[in-house]
Design brief:
The protein is an alpha+beta fold. The chain has 13 helices and 40 strands. The radius of gyration is 26 Å and the shape is globular. The protein binds alpha-D-galactopyranose.
Length: 729
């Protein structure tokens, strides 16, 4: 299907707007009371929708009436829900007016169409068209609300964000400012979330949605591993390949909330945005608050279709375009091999070992700066520890360059150690409550990135190291939650802004470092995948998915992460086995490499201690990876077998023209009589014939998808299988 420009059609008679592309329609209706309602979101429909207004049941219902039309504000699918106007369910916007009043009856006063523009201070999906609605309450002219909905060609998603402006003469306070509100039709829906913790990120949890409020999120100041900023509602009967799914992912890296409220009518109010638990935001006259963007995705092809919709949108319109589809560095990282215990000699020996294997980037992790020999000191002192490295960093970089590899370096720019020169010079730069010692986590504190001078100092220090040492790659880490939402430079009534200001400051810092160094490849990390979100993807083409590199655990982590994020963004390394930190089972080196080629790949162990035959096999593994890289980075992902449901992990990457494909299978434990002996492929063209070198034969796409391929795995635990398919006709 050829992608054409998205369109916006306005039926002036019915007051219905159709925001659409060749795949989906998102329709809005201005009802006779002037309320903006989301009339429809889903597969493409004609310009002939008929608004049906639910009848208010019972005498307790509140009604709004005008010209013979009446509605219950709780039941309608308003595009923004406010309190105290008779809507008794969760609002998406709460504003406290100067006199303490909170009711806002918003009506649509104008609309306009515009090319999609960047959100002020926040990352956002780019390109396409926006439909903007201006809402006001005639009784409260001080508040203006602009809803923005955007769509791109060929994508099964729209983006929603809200701008709230104080047009009055006195300050007002926001206590909730969500990014979207969408009504899902009555039905039996399941919720799907990605929950977890450090070393166990993106675990899938699916369960039926019952009546009442289902709400997930985090108050950790970062998007976190405890709850990824994603929530899907899928039909009870939906599978990987069929059924309707509505899903939201926030382009945001801070505390967040996503909720689904099943109302007595059976309809579901789906909404979310910045977490409002501790959030308040004061708007002085003339000021505006921009919410982060929510990506709303629709699939009628089950969870697999949902994932491909997110992947396509993120790859085409969010992830830095100069990086997203080009070959990735295959890194060697010293962390699991040495932790903090290394010197220049050890690093050179490691570089000697991996040079010539096809590994093209040598990454020096934590411990190269300040006086940092363990996790208790040095963060913030972004100056080379020459004593430890045995000379200037530039010498080591030069050594690695001469070995034919690029050089990567670890930073944790958002943090400060108590034992650091930075803290001794600027004790007030720490984010902390005034009456207590700051909360420590991993022996470190968080810098107040809401402050411009803090960002300027850190950007300057990091940029200086990059410029002076010919650094090619950076791993940007962040190893703790934000515990305290208090900034020493904000007045009392603005303390509720601290977390969000931190996130805005972070994006500004990323602009100053990542965007200021276009030749450097940046990878994101937060104790593994503790800040794996769409906001980060706007800066980092790939993110370290987990500190847990044990292949068994990785099957679930990688599978879960792929629900929302494309394989190209999921960074996976081959490590030692049984893994020193997280593993108890041995996995063959070749299987570890296959599983680590699920996404952007790399290696992480002490290569000077690696068995000779394993070291020798790396070059062949990287050759395979490079051969498959285009499929991994740019192909469509199909998940065939879930490690959450059994011992198998199986996925396919299929080229957009369906002429090439790769099947990757990993079997965790081998039991006697494993019943699964073949797997049905997906995404191929049933009319085409495919050669499979590994199976030594030619098969029709129909056979491969309906009968399947034999899973001839070796007899050991942790066995992997990779098959390649190439169309011949
Ligand atoms: C985090 C990262 C690891 C490593 C350490 C260094 O845990 O996820 O990969 O960089 O920090 O301290």
């Amino acid at each position: 299907m050829k992608n054409t420009e998205p369109t916006i059609f306005f039926d002036g008679k019915e007051k219905i707007f159709y925001l659409e592309n060749e795949k989906i329609t998102c329709a809005f209706w201005i009802d006779p009371c002037g309320t903006l309602q989301t009339l429809y979101f889903g597969e493409k429909v004609g310009h002939d929708l008929i608004p049906v207004v639910p009848k208010a049941p019972g005498q307790h219902a509140v009604t709004r009436k005008k010209d013979g039309y009446s509605c219950d504000p709780s039941l309608i699918s308003a595009a923004v829900h406010t309190s105290f106007g008779g809507d008794s369910f969760e609002p998406s916007l709460s504003v406290v007016l100067p006199d303490g009043a909170r009711r806002l009856d918003l009506i649509c006063v104008s609309h306009r169409e515009a090319p999609k523009s960047r959100l002020a201070g926040l990352p956002s999906v780019s390109g396409g068209k926006s439909l903007l609605f201006e809402l006001m309450d005639p009784a409260v002219p001080a508040i203006s609300v602009t809803l923005s909905f955007s769509i791109q060609a060929g994508q099964s998603a729209v983006e929603s964000s809200v701008l709230i402006r104080n047009c009055g003469k006195e300050p007002v306070t926001l206590t909730r400012a969500y990014s979207f509100s969408l009504q899902i039709p009555a039905g039996e829906w399941d919720t799907v979330v990605l929950h977890g913790q450090h070393a166990q990120e993106c675990q899938i949890d699916r369960r039926p949605l019952s009546f009442g409020l289902f709400s997930v999120g985090t108050r950790r100041g970062i998007s976190s591993s405890s709850m990824n900023p994603f929530l899907a509602l899928c039909e009870n009967a939906a599978t990987e390949t069929s059924g309707r799914v509505y899903a939201a992912a926030l382009v945001y890296s801070g505390s967040h909330v996503l909720s689904a409220e099943k109302m007595p009518s059976g309809n579901v109010r789906f909404q979310g945005g910045v977490q409002d638990g501790e959030f308040t935001w004061k708007l002085d006259p003339g000021e505006a608050f921009q919410t982060p963007e929510a990506v709303l995705c629709f699939s009628s092809d089950g969870l697999g279709g949902m994932s491909r919709a997110f992947h396509d949108l993120f790859r085409a319109h969010l992830i830095p375009q100069r990086r997203v589809s080009s070959p990735r560095p295959v890194v060697f990282n010293n962390w699991e091999g040495t932790h903090f215990t290394f010197n220049g000699e050890k690093l050179r020996a490691m570089a000697d070992s991996v040079a010539g294997t096809g590994i093209d980037t040598f990454v020096l992790d934590d411990g190269w700066f300040g006086k940092r020999n363990d996790s208790t000191s040095g963060l913030g002192d972004w100056f080379t520890n020459e004593e430890k490295l045995g000379g200037p960093l530039s010498d080591l970089v030069e050594y690695v360059h001469q070995k034919g590899m690029k050089f990567g370096l670890w930073f944790e720019p958002e943090m400060i150690s108590r034992d650091s020169d930075l803290f001794r010079a600027h004790p007030d730069w720490v984010l902390r409550e005034p009456h207590h010692e700051p909360v420590e986590s991993r022996n470190q504190w968080v810098l107040d990135l809401g402050r411009a001078e803090v960002r300027a100092c850190i950007a300057d220090r990091v940029n200086r190291i990059l410029a002076e040492n010919r650094i090619d790659y950076v791993k940007w880490d962040m190893n703790r939650d934000l515990a305290e939402g208090y900034s020493s430079v904000l007045p009392p009534e603005r303390q509720g802004e601290t977390f969000h200001r931190y996130v805005l400051g972070l994006y500004d810092l990323l602009d100053r470092v990542v965007n200021a160094n276009p030749d450097v490849f940046f990878e994101g990390c937060s104790s593994g995948g503790c800040r794996f979100d769409a906001g980060m993807l706007a800066y980092f083409p790939q993110i370290w998915a987990s500190d847990n590199t044990d292949a068994y655990s990785r099957t679930r982590i990688q599978y879960g992460t792929s629900l929302v994020y494309p394989p190209s963004s999921i960074s996976c390394h081959v490590s030692s086995s049984p893994n020193a930190s997280y593993g108890s089972h041995f996995v063959p080196f070749a299987s570890r490499a296959s599983l680590a080629q699920f996404g952007a790949t790399g290696y992480e162990f002490d290569p000077t201690k690696l068995p000779e035959q394993d070291l020798a096999s790396i070059s062949g593994q990287i050759e395979t990876y490079r051969g498959d890289e285009d499929l991994i980075l740019n192909g469509d992902l199909y998940r065939l077998l879930s490690p959450f449901e059994g011992e198998f992990f199986a996925v396919m990457n299929v080229s957009r023209d369906r002429r090439r494909a790769r099947l990757l299978v990993f079997r965790r434990l081998r039991y006697a009589n494993v019943p699964l002996t073949r797997a049905s492929l997906q995404g191929l063209d049933p009319e085409l014939d495919y050669d499979c070198a590994e199976l030594g034969g030619r098969f029709s796409g129909a056979t491969l998808m309906r009968f399947g391929v034999p899973l001839r795995l070796s007899g050991e635990d942790g066995a992997a299988l990779v098959l390649h398919f190439r169309a011949v006709n």
